[in-house]
Amino acid sequence: xxxxxxxxxxxxxxxxxxxxxxxxxxxxxxxxxxxxxxxxxxxxxxxxxxxxxxxxxxxxxxxxxxxxxxxxxxxxxxxxxxxxxxxxxxxxxxxxxxxxxxxxxxxxxxxxxxxx
Length: 116
Fold this sequence. Notes:
By secondary structure, this protein is of the alpha/beta class. Helix content is 38%, strand content 17%.
């Protein structure tokens, strides 16, 4: 990626879909910080590369784009807007990309983004 802007990614949720997407980013040469509640899911992605984040907040901080792939809408809502919500640690100008295969709650996300 010499000579171009090297984006940094965070990836939270490394199950079947999220893990595959994260590994594809790593194989493409991107820097990816990895986090999942299941240590085995992190280890599976680390086999291809990437960097282990010790918390969701660490995965979300200092990245250009944060991917989330979570099982339930309330998991996403709590992760982003809970007491220690990731919107509080994400850098200004970064992008959230949710690839969860759930019914998302765009209202809570949109409301929060407009109020920042």
